[in-house]
Task: structure prediction
Amino acid sequence: MSARPPLVLVPQHFGSTVFDRRTSRYLPFDHAGTALLRASREAPFWTHLDTLADGDRGEAAQRFYAHFESMGFFDLDGHFAGVELAVDDVPADHLVGPLAVHVEVSAACNLTCSHCFAGELPRHERHLTLAELDALFAELASMGSYRVGLTGGEPLLRRELFEILDLATHHGLHPCVTTNALRIDERVAREFGRRDLVWLNVSLDGATAASNDRVRGDGVFEAVRERLAVLGRHARFTLAFTVMEHNAHEVEACARLAAEVGAHTAVFRPLYPVGMADGRADLMPSFAQYSDALARLAAMGAAELGDHDLRALDAFSPDTRDESGVRTDHACGAGTTVCSVSVSGDVNPCSFLGAGFVVGNVRETPFATLWRTHETMRALRRPSAGTHGCRARSLAFAGDVDAPDPWVIAGAQKPGSAHPLVVLRTSKRA
Result:
């Protein structure tokens, strides 16, 4: 990935998104900003200032340059530090491609977690072959869908996992692996360390064996900690926590644990009522519990975590953020910014929506065709009460993806509440 230009401009109906390979994040630009970036590919940015009218437009362009120059968008000569993705036909009302695609590479697991979103495992399906995955990755790259999450089940049960990672990076994609870590040994840790992954997520669901093992199984907490000691010698990793009714009170301890074991970041997501957690009201956190947990995390600082820095940020969306970096629009990404592909090639607007929302299979129909033309995708992009919030929660609690998300209803009574995804950066300051 390092040999490629750091930026990719992806044309969009509103202007463009720019993918920054250094941070693995997208930024949105309107038509005017996109025109400035395009023009600066051919000639230094400041040569275009003379063509702009004096006054507000000229001042705005100068501020634009100063801001994005500080972010490394321009080289020393003032040229845009990237390339433009060739797109033959820009859709009029949705993104050229999803910002993140979750690709299932295993439908089996070595654990039987009581809250697993993947449901009952194993599922005996015909896995996409390496050649089929290679073709899928090439298609995703052609759509500007650079972020790929490799999931399961347990990805390390797929013998070709590292070959799959190499196929993804060969096409310029930025893969992320989510694992329970129990199959990590010195060899596996070294293999991860040799690769430049966006994230290597290790799942834990509590700061203690009592809270974690309640859902993941006896002895898992200590076993994972042992594996982290091996992994940390070779690779950077993230601890990914699922916030539930019984562990919401200990999120600060989870953040401290992440720092203690050397995690680069700590991710806190709420439990979704899908898969094995469907109908498990005893595990579900309330909106109040989750939002209070996020507020307490935000209040943590260097005084509690030593020389580790904690910052809230959203890893997947280009939407506007507040000063803390947290998304506040409560928008559902199903079929709009995210999509999923099952181990056998079934495409779903979101893996949380279940089999009833499968729109087709990449063995039969190109992914891009399903993304652009399938009526289910189109329907999810139309404004509805379910647009604001999580459609999977709406489906679970109201039986309809277009129904209001009960969390959004609860959140409306609490101004300034955060979007239900927070990532805390725990890496030491340079």
In short: The mean pLDDT is 87. The longest helix spans residues 56-70. DSSP finds 14 helices and 15 strands in the chain. The radius of gyration is 22 Å.
